[in-house]
TrEMBL record:
Keyword Kinase: no
Xref: PROSITE patterns: CYTC
Organism of derivation: Nitrospira defluvii
Tree of life domain: Bacteria
InterPro entries the UniProt entry points to: Cyt_c-like_dom (IPR009056), Cyt_c-like_dom_sf (IPR036909), Cyt_C_IC (IPR008168)
Keywords: Electron transport, Heme, Iron, Metal-binding, Signal, Transport
Organism classification: Bacteria, Pseudomonadati, Nitrospirota, Nitrospiria, Nitrospirales
Name of the protein in question: Putative Cytochrome c553
UniProt domain Cytochrome c: residue ranges: 28-113
Protein's UniProt keywords contain DNA damage: no
Length: 121
């Protein structure tokens, strides 16, 4: 088996293990995260996180379900949520959310990344 195949097998094993056990990255409360997301983020990022809600901006709203976002570490996503993005519509949520709430909503963002494989809670 070459290295690429081994890597893919290892990755999918990890993915199945993570989803199958019901644990999510970022370690937050997924139900609480969904409530926060629905109330605060959905109007821009959309129900599926694809950034196709009715609010349009330049630069465009990030597709949170995309590999480009999901491949980032939890810390990077939490920083983007905490501090916002300069010169964009993505505000700094540190003024609204506690660190724990930012963790919860990040956990839900991970669910958006896996929604094609499983039903949303
Ligand atoms: C007013 C519209 C708006 C709202 C509300 C909003 N976002 Fe965003 N978000 C954006 C835009 C626009 C970007 C892309 C910014 C950029 O291009 O740098 C973005 C980017 C992000 C990113 C970075 C993605 C990456 O590429 O790393 C994350 C994570 C994120 N948003 C999560 C959230 C969460 C969680 C909430 C709710 C707490 C939220 N956003 C609310 C508009 C919004």
């Amino acid at each position: 088996m070459n290295a690429r195949v081994t890597g893919a097998v290892l990755l999918s094993t990890f993915f199945v293990a993570a989803v199958g056990s019901g644990s999510y990255a970022a370690g937050g409360n997924v139900a609480q995260g969904k409530v926060l997301y629905t109330n605060l983020c959905l109007r821009c990022h959309g129900v599926d996180g694809k950034g196709d809600a009715y609010m349009k901006f330049n630069p465009p709203v990030a597709d949170l379900s995309a590999p480009a976002v999901q491949s980032k570490l939890d810390g990077a996503l939490m920083k983007a949520i905490h501090d916002g993005r300069k010169d964009s519509a993505m505000g700094a949520w540190k003024f609204v959310l506690s660190d724990e709430e930012i963790r919860d909503v990040t956990t839900y963002v991970r669910v958006l990344g896996s929604h094609t494989n499983r039903k949303l809670p």
